[in-house]
Amino acid sequence: MSPTPVLSTRGLVSGYAGSRVLDGVDLDLAEGRVLALLGRNGVGKSTLVNTIMGLVRPMAGSVTVAGQEVAGARPDRIAGLGLGLVPQGRRVFAPLTVAEHLEIADRAGRAGNWTRQRVLDLLPRLGERLRHRGDQLSGGEQQMLAIARALLTNPTILLLDEPSDGLAPSVVQQVAEVVQEVCRAGMSVLLVEQNLRLALSVADQVVVMQKGTVKWDVPVDEFRRNRARAEELLGI
Amino acid sequence: MSTDAGLRSRGRRLPLRTAVLVAVVTVLLLLVPWVFGAFTVMTFTRALVFAVLAMSVNLLTGVAGMPTLGQAAYFGVGAYTGALVGIHWSELGVVQLALATLAGVVAAVLTGPLAIRGRGVAFLMITLAIGEIGYTAAGRLDSVTGGTDGMSGIPPVVVTPGGSGLVNEGLIYYYVLVVAAVSYAAVAVLLRSPFGLTLRGLRDNESRLRSVGYRTDSYALAAYVYAGGLAALAGSLWASSQRFVAPGDLGFEISALALLAVIVGGVGSMWGACLGALLVVFTRDYLGQQLSGHAPLLLGILFVLTVYLLPQGVAGGRAQWRRLFPKDHGGDPGTVTPT
C-alpha cells in the first residue's frame, strides 16, 4: 500500500497575467518521502512551488495539504498548515542579522521540535555568524539560513526550490545531508532541482515536468533504470 | 561569542561611545534656551515638533518600506484636536497629547485599510490623496477648524494640574523636548521589539514574510496606525507651541518636508530623521530668512547635495566613509567568506 499523500495537486492551472505556465498538474507527495521535481528551465517548476505556497494564485484545479483544500488561500494560512518554503535564490532578509532571521521565523512558526538550538546544531556555521546581516553571508550560508528559517516554522512539508543553485560542490553536499536529516525527522520534502546528482541522492520519487504538465512520475529506482526516457525528457 | 549570547544579542547594552554621544547631545539640547535668543529657541522648538513628525514618516517609509506623503493629515488631526481640547476642555498638556494621539489613531484606523491596499507608488498616491482630503476638510469645516482663517485663542499649555501656563519660549522648548525625547524612546523600543523586526522584514521582502506565516497586511496596518498616532502627537505639540493652527499646517508641503527630512537624515534611521528635521527647519526658517526668503531654493540645494554626496543620508555617511576609506577590520561583520 502506498503511503498517504500529505500534499496533492489535481488539474492545477496557474501562471502570470493571463499566461498559463502550469497546464493541469497532478502530483502526490507521500508522507516522510522526498519527491524530486525535475525539468528543463521554464517548464513551470518554480511556478508550481509558488502556487502551492499561495504566492501565485491558481487559475483552476486543487491543492490539498493533509486533506485540506488550500488552492488560492493566503500564504500565511498555508504556512500555518505546515508548509515551509526555501525559495529559489535564497531571498534572505538582507538587513536582518542571522539571529534576527531565526527570531522572526521562530515567532511565526508553529510549535514543534525544531527549536533555534536544534536548527543551529544541524547548521553549525550559522551559529558562528549570528550577528552578521543576511547580505554579509556567502551564498552557501544564505542557503543554510533560508533552510533554517523554513525549519523554524516547524513545517511538516518542506518545499525546496533549487537549493543547490550557484553553490560550490561541498555546500551542495551539505544541502543533501540536511535534506536527508529532515526527512529522517519525519518531514516530507518537495525538492525542485536542476542538479540531477543531488536530486537522485536524496529522492524517493522523481517527477519530470514538461511544458507545464507532469510527463513522468516514477520511483527513483525506475528513473535510474530507464536512462533513455530520462535523457529524452531532460536532454541530459 | 556563544550561540546563546548571539541569540540574545538584541538585548545588549548601549556601547560606551553611543552613551557618551547621547549624553553630549542631551546636554547641548538642554543648553539651547540658555545660549540662544527667542527666535532661535522657537526655531529649535519647531524643529523638535518636526522631528516627531519625521519619525512618524520614517517609521512607514524607512522601516516598513511604505513611502508616504499623507502624514500631515494625521499631524493636522492631532493639531486641531489638541487645540480644541485646550480651548474647550483642558489646558493640561498630557490630556491634550493623549486625546490628540487617540484622534490620530482613530483617523489612521479608519483610513489605513484603504491606504495599505497598495504598496510602493500606489501607497504613495493613496496617502497623498488622504493628505489632500485632510487639507481640504480643514479649510471647509469652518465650525470646527475655523476654516481658512485658522484656529487661534489656544491657551498656554499647563504641565501640572493647577500650574500656570507655559508662555516663556524656553519653557515651551523644554516641554516639547521632553515629549519628543519620550516619543523617540517609544519608537526605539518599538524598533527593538519583535514587531519592529517584522516591519524590517516587511520592507525587505513582503512575500517571503508571508510565506514564513505572517499576515503582512495586519503588520502594515499596525505600523500605519502607530505612525498616525505619532504624527498626531506631533500635531498636538505644534498647537501647544504655536497656539495657532491653520489648514496650511497639514498641507502637502508639510508632508513633503517631512519626507525630505527623512531622506536628508537617512532613510530608516530615527536619529537621522531627527537630524534631518533639524536641518530642514533651520534651512527653511533660519537660513531662508537670512537670504531674502529663498528657503525653497536652499531646500532644493540641500536635497540635491544629499542625493549626490550622501545618497544614504547623514546617518549613512559613516558606512559610506568606511566604504571609501576601508581599514583592515579583522573579523568584522562585513567579512564575507567564499561560497
Give an overview in words.
The complex is a heterodimer of chains A (236) and B (339). Helices cover 37% and strands 27% of the residues of chain A. The longest helix of chain A is centred in the last third of the chain and has 16 residues, at 169-184. Chain A starts with a strand and ends with a helix. In chain A, helix 3 packs parallel to helix 6 (139-151) and helix 7 runs parallel beside helix 8. A six-stranded mixed β-sheet of chain A has the order 6-7-8-3-9-10, sandwiched between helices. A four-stranded antiparallel β-sheet of chain A has the order 2-1-4-5, covered by helices on one side. Chain A is globular. Chain A has helices spanning 45-53, 75-80, 98-108, 116-122, 124-127, 139-151, 169-184, 196-202, 220-225, 227-234, and strands at residues 5-16, 19-30, 34-38, 60-65, 68-69, 83-86, 157-161, 188-192, 205-210, 213-219. By secondary structure, chain A is an alpha/beta fold. The mean pLDDT of chain A is 88. Chain B has a domain at 37-251. With 339 residues, chain B is an all-alpha fold. Chain B contains 15 helices and no strands. The model of chain B is unreliable at 1-11 and 329-339 (pLDDT under 50). In chain B, 46% of the residues are buried. Chain B has helices at residues 3-7, 16-35, 38-63, 71-88, 93-115, 121-140, 142-145, 169-192, 194-204, 206-212, 216-242, 252-265, 270-290, 295-309, 317-324. The chains are: A alpha/beta (236), B mainly alpha (339). At the A-B interface, helix 2, helix 3, helix 4 and helix 6 of A face helix 1, helix 9 and helix 10 of B.
Features:
heterodimer; A: 236 residues; six-stranded mixed β-sheet; 37% helix; B: 339 residues; mainly alpha; 15 helices; 72% helix; globular; disordered N terminus; disordered C terminus
Could you provide a short overview of the structure?
By secondary structure, chain A is α/β, with parallel strands linked by helices.
Order of strands, main sheet of chain A, comes to 6-7-8-3-9-10
Query: Which shape of chain A, going by the Cα principal axes?
Result: globular
Secondary structure class of chain A reads: alpha/beta
Low-confidence stretches of chain A: none
How many beta-strand segments of chain B? 0
